[in-house]
Write a sequence for this structure.
């Protein structure tokens, strides 16, 4: 069968699509995580907390579809990456899943009893379900940037020689805190647009302003860490974008500061970090000026820019190895076959617009502020 797209082009397309899915997850489920993290701090009475929970109550389940799509895309398009990343981060992934499981349980059971202690316990469970995934996702990205201690043998079996506690280093914790600041800003912007006007919204705006400032500072600190902390990898051997996938045929070397080389070689890529900084600043200004749409647009742009900065800085490397650089996975050596990528692309072209269209339709139908009076008048709300 003749495939109209070259293998190289398909690999780049799927690298981009993976980024789109990760950004989609951050923009949708990100404000869910942010609102859950903010819950104990912006809402103090039971009525206020029910109102905050119901700003995301109608959409949080659908938003998690992006997380599943992202995992499925890695599994199908980048099987080497899936196998090594999910086995290396097994305990971290388990921690994320355990925290995410608290969310549906918290949503469903919180208001089943009138007990204050019962409801407070589930409120903090929802906080854990928002804060922990945001933190650990950021820590995982930090580990990818600094390299993962794995190696491949001649039979392509992977061996991970790291530890769970070893995942938490100063740089990876910085990335984790940046991730938390990013989703808290996004959650605060969401509450500014969805919560009734009053004390809850004002508290969210104050915390969102602090989170935006912290996000800018942490993003700048991460950039400096990469520049002066000796982080970076690059391909030093021949690049074979059309060759069959085989990580053992790629020569990669750890090169201090190499993660910034793409921005020097291709200045247009600087749009991503500029968007990361400018979006956060615009979100803070929008929050302070009570311009809700400017705030949510700014927080979305900031998240997009931060994630794109990571992807563009690493291209074409996806998963570098700090133990054996030549075992590193790249866009060119870790993908599925030419035929698999093409068939998946056709399916994506047909189905992704359906997912996007349904998502926009749901948000349009469910648009509008949530107020405590409506919640108290109906038993259908959480």
């Amino acid at each position: 069968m003749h495939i109209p797209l070259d293998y190289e082009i398909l690999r780049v397309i799927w690298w981009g699509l993976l980024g789109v899915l990760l950004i989609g997850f951050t923009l949708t489920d990100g404000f869910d995580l942010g609102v859950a993290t903010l819950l104990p701090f912006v809402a103090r009475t039971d009525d206020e907390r029910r109102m905050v929970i119901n700003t995301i109550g109608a959409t949080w389940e659908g938003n998690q579809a992006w997380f599943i799509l992202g995992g499925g895309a890695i599994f199908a398009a980048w099987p080497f990456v899936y196998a090594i990343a999910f086995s290396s981060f097994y305990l971290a992934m388990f921690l994320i899943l355990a925290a995410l499981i608290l969310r549906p349980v918290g949503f469903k059971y919180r208001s089943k009893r009138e007990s204050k202690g019962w409801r407070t316990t589930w409120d903090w469970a929802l906080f854990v379900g928002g804060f922990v995934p945001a933190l650990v996702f950021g820590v995982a990205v930090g580990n990818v940037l600094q390299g993962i201690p794995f190696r491949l043998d001649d039979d392509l079996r992977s061996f991970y020689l790291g530890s769970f506690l070893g995942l938490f280093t100063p740089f990876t914790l910085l990335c984790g805190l940046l991730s938390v600041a990013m989703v808290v800003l996004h959650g605060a912007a969401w509450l500014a647009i969805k919560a009734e006007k009053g004390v809850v919204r004002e508290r969210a705006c104050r915390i969102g302003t602090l989170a935006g400032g912290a996000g800018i500072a942490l993003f700048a600190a991460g950039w400096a860490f990469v520049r002066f902390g000796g982080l970076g990898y690059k391909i030093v051997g021949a690049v074979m974008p059309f060759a069959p996938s085989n990580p053992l045929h790629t020569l990669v070397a750890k090169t201090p500061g190499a993660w910034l080389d793409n921005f020097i070689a291709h200045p247009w890529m600087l749009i991503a970090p500029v968007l990361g900084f400018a979006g956060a600043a615009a979100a803070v200004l929008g929050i302070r000026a009570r311009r809700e749409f400017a705030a949510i647009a700014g927080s979305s742009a900031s998240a997009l820019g931060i994630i794109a900065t990571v992807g563009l800085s690493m291209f074409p490397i996806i998963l570098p190895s700090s133990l054996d650089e030549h075992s590193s996975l790249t866009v060119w050596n870790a993908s599925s076959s030419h035929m698999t990528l093409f068939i998946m692309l056709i399916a994506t072209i047909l189905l992704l617009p359906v997912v996007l269209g349904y998502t926009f339709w749901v948000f349009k139908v469910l648009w509008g502020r949530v107020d405590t009076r409506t919640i108290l008048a109906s038993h259908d709300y959480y």
Q: What stands out?
A: Residues 7-376 form one domain. Residues 141 and 211 are 20 Å apart (CA to CA). Residues 7-42 form the longest helix (36 residues).
